[in-house]
## 1
Amino acid sequence: MAEKTITFKETIDDSLPTPLYHQLYVLIREKIFSGIYANGSLIPTEKELEKMFDVSRITVKRALDELAKEGLVARQRGRGTTVTFNNPVSHSSGNMAGLIEDMQTIAKETTVTILEFDYVKAPPQAVDALKLDPAATVQKAVRTRHKDATPFSYVTTYLPEDIGRTFKYEELEARPILALIERAGIAIARARQTITATLADSTTASALMVNIGSPLIKVTRIVYDSNDRPVEYITIYYRPDHYQLNLDLSRIKGEQANFWSTRQ
């Protein structure tokens, strides 16, 4: 299959305070993330980029070096610069059945590394989320999930002790935690989820192989069983360059206004 060469039409602005190399870096990076510049595509040579944007060879080289450092491109003498970025892991957010199915699919396509697995005194946020006694013990599990050896999520879960004791450390390496909870005979009914943006601290930056201060997607979720008991409290940090969340929405006609609702 012939390699595709990319043609740039965008411009950079030397009147802006942002360095020229960073403008060029961002331009190429966003095209890669959006899928316009697909994995395996060749981008123009350094000389061609110099001419296109009227910048120096040093500016172009620094922009390409930054992309290579992030693993988005590979640079080879005599062959050019090739896009090496794969499409991010994604899942659809809808009803609980769909969520569990998506988690199982992700588990099959990725690998997990368990960083911590223990029974500890419940921290305040877990006590509140799981409606526990302040002296309660919970199972705490911390893990990273990888695709093609690149970490894309840093996950911390807290489970009530009686649920946590139904499976072992080794099983968490092979199966999604929701599947293990269901295996214990717990009927999962609903979840309350919050999605926001945050910045990587020293812990998440190290685990996800990004710089401190890098943007991350933060998801917090409380999962409830059919008796409305909280059975899981989970916090996930995602690398936005390797993960995306998809929503299927339906247009609902209301009495006073129309609105969007997640499709069930």
## 2
Amino acid sequence: MRRRDRSTDSDEDLNIWPAFTDLMSNAFMIINLFLLLALVKSAFLKSTAENTSDQLAKAQREIAEITQILNDSKSELQLKNNYLNEKENEIKGLQQKIESLQSPPLIIIKDSDIDSEKRPLKFEAGRADLPEGLRLFIDNNVVNQLESFAKQYPGYVVEIIGHTDGQETVAPISNLDQTLENVAIGNESVSNLKAGSNADLGLMRALAVVKNLQAVQQKTGQLQGLKFRAYSAAQLFLPTGEYAPSDRAPDPTRRRIEIRFTPPAVEK
């Protein structure tokens, strides 16, 4: 009986191998399971990485497109700003031109003035011959002013207006009706004219200035393109532009030559 028991115990000891085999089998299965999980995780990570890479590339393309749009917008904005600046400059130029057109320049030579050499600019009483001081003042000063104004007012006509005071003329007989045209075209001298009124005298003096400016055109080439017109205002207007009262006293402040730039008129 004791031998059988020992044999049975020995057999039972030998029966642990199936259990060990089962354990190893289970362990192998677990390892395979971990390997499978690792493969799945690797595949998942790879897929996620690929998706992330695609998304990153897409995001970079979108950023590049947005950047290009911004650059294009900046360029377009700069062009519009340049355009606006150009238009603003044009508007300013037009405004300045409108302002200048509303108030063209005026040169006044007063009979009471003197030049830088203390020479008087006044005409002799009742005459229209240019005194030396006035001729030199026109040649050395007025001509330069007219050239400057002519650039700002192209096509304008230069009007020379003779103003007198209210004194009555000494010689009441005028020869302007017989001689004026010949003087205007240069066949006769202004000194041949005789004034029968202040209206005659103002016109004679204005014409004397016109003839001097035309002589400058021909001799020096200055004042090219300018056209001159001679007019008389007689004693009608004060230097302020108001109508003068009836006053026969001599007044050198009223005797003057006005030179105006006037746009050419068009008959309609």
## 3
Amino acid sequence: MIKLVAVDMDGTFLDDQKNYDEDRFAKVFDKMQKQKAEFVVASGNQYVQLVQFFEPIKEKITFISDNGAMVTKHGEEIFSSSFEKADVEKVLEVLSLKTDFRVIVCGKKGAYILDSVPDDFIKTIEFYCPVMFKVSDYNQIDDDVLKIALSCPEEETERLLAELHGEISHITIPVSSGHGSIDLIQPNMHKGNAIQFVLKHFNFSSKEAAAFGDGGNDLEMLDLVGTSFAMENAPEAVKKVAKHVAPTNNESGVLVEMEKLFF
């Protein structure tokens, strides 16, 4: 029996318009509640952004945010891991020499960007960073840094990912969900590690867990659980890790498979 379901958001649970079938999900979630199964949102996005999608039930579910750096269960933080300040400074120093991407420093309190960043870029990230602070220098940040997000041209993502792996992988691990996004995360602080923590917290086994994903930052999570689904719209590398393939995110693929699991 499946006792926990973890879902990525962008490209997985959400369609391309950033929506999901709320009525259909409500029926599945009600069934999960009756079976005492846990629903877990596992995303690279920040907690303050994720809860907006689940306002009525946000204190009944668990959120893995910032690609595994923070876990919030039923409205209460139960785990977090942040970068050492010196490591943040070293990474930002390397990034300052590059012009291929924009940098967003993500902390517990919100996201931080330089005040020199153009307004048109800010508009593109407002959806993902509802709590945003402008700083003239990153040294002004007084927060626990959970990850550093980079926005780059989508067609350049793989090249920049490989480049960063060689330069800063001794401090941070570059991962990508695709879509022109690269996250610099703490070593071993990925979604798979967070799922393992959550399973232990609830006293569930990995065989009792299912997970859905579509990006490179979902690989460890998909590899860990007993029942894993890559979305039909996922790259082949993700499909090779997952045990099953779900319909696309635009076809409510997650809900299609969850209905099979719980009805």
